Inverse folding.
């Protein structure tokens, strides 16, 4: 069978150009993220840390009146009752879900859905009540926490690659806008999750994210997927300001203080990404 050398050459050039474009886009995403994270921290608004009062919690910034973060591997896995104990609240005010990597958004203010410890099926929660604490289970997937500084409306989202491909974050933002929230009033934090450097995927996943993957030179037919960059892009396109968005750089796979399915497999526990409007102070004894 004859081979057209010119066609082969053009194909190789096209593939090389595509790889360079993807790589450049990935680095641009990373550089922009680092720049605006530095800007947030320089204003004293950013920076994650272990809570001095609650060492089980990795804190992320949202607003002065909000306490938000991700639980650590100080416990093998986290349940609603565990978080209630640490926060010194009743388990009945903590809303968690039976997560299925979908796009269902649950109204956390509907007490009937959570009666007797029930976990309705879904991957996102929205509340308008100050007495409700939202929490989603994560172990490498992204936990996205949203707070409206005017209405105190809040949302918590679980978004792995399936949720990101389906646009669950955009759907939640649309829901908040329909309730009256404005993009300029929203503050968003992404808790620690899998980093692109340790998140290899196959073609069946990579095809959904042409702008946020780079070839994995260590493994044939594999790409490195930046879920944080995907979510950052979706949030910015929806109108969230760079300076109102915090993306925790910590990687749950690399850092053993966080639960990780990719690192630990079936033995992995689950952490809880949560937010509550109860104001915790550094000198407070929970």
């Amino acid at each position: 069978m004859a081979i057209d050398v010119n066609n082969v050459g053009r194909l190789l050039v096209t593939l090389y150009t595509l790889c360079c474009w993807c790589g450049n886009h990935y680095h641009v995403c990373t550089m922009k993220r680092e720049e605006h994270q530095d800007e947030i921290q320089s204003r004293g608004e950013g920076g994650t840390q272990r809570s001095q009062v609650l060492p089980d919690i990795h804190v992320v910034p949202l607003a002065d009146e909000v306490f938000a973060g991700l639980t650590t591997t100080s416990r093998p896995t986290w349940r609603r009752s565990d978080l209630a104990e640490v926060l010194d609240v009743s388990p009945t005010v903590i809303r968690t879900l039976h997560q299925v990597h979908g796009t269902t958004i649950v109204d956390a203010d509907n007490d009937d859905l959570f009666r007797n410890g029930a976990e309705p099926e879904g991957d996102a929660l929205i509340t308008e009540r100050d007495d409700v604490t939202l929490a989603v289970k994560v172990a490498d997937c992204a936990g996205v926490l949203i707070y409206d500084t005017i209405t105190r409306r809040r949302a918590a989202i679980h978004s792995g690659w399936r949720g990101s491909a389906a646009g669950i974050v955009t759907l939640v933002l649309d829901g908040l806008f329909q309730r009256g929230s404005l993009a300029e009033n929203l503050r968003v934090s992404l808790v620690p999750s899998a980093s692109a450097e340790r998140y290899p995927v196959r073609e069946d996943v990579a095809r959904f994210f042409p702008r946020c993957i780079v070839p994995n030179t260590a493994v044939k037919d594999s790409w490195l997927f930046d879920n944080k960059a995907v979510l950052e892009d979706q949030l910015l396109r929806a109108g969230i300001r760079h300076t109102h968005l915090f993306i925790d750089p910590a990687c749950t796979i690399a850092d053993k203080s966080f639960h990780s399915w990719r690192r630990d497999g079936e033995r992995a526990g689950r952490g809880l990404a949560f937010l509550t409007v109860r104001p915790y102070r550094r000198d407070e004894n929970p």
Q: What stands out?
A: The longest strand covers residues 142-148. The longest helix spans residues 5-42.
